[in-house]
Amino acid sequence: MSPVPLVSIRNLTVEFRGEDHLVTAVKSISLDVRPGEILGIVGESGSGKSVTSLSIMRLIAAPGRISGGDHLSTRQ
Ligand SMILES: Nc1ncnc2c1ncn2[C@@H]1O[C@H](COP(=O)(O)OP(=O)(O)OP(=O)(O)O)[C@@H](O)[C@H]1O
Ligand SMILES: [Mg+2]
User: What's the confidence (pLDDT) of residue 30?
Assistant: First the structure.
């Protein structure tokens, strides 16, 4: 059986709300990182790599917010 993930995300969605517009920066992403694994996230500029990483570290600040997700956990 595979070990318990160190990082586990299910359906993470992050939005930035402007005065008259809404940017969905990350839309329903899921991933697991288990002990000993290295996960690389690739994608074009603006695809949400940094926002995903900031969400894992709980560093999304207003006007951004985690607007969806069943699960976002980290353990030491
Ligand atoms: N503070 C913010 N306010 C408004 N929109 C933001 C903010 N930070 C990120 N975004 C938007 O969220 C989306 C994802 O941005 P992100 O920085 O995660 O992309 P990235 O994949 O890391 O790009 P790059 O490869 O250029 O670093 C983009 O549309 C970006 O404009
Ligand atoms: Mg980036």
Answer: 96
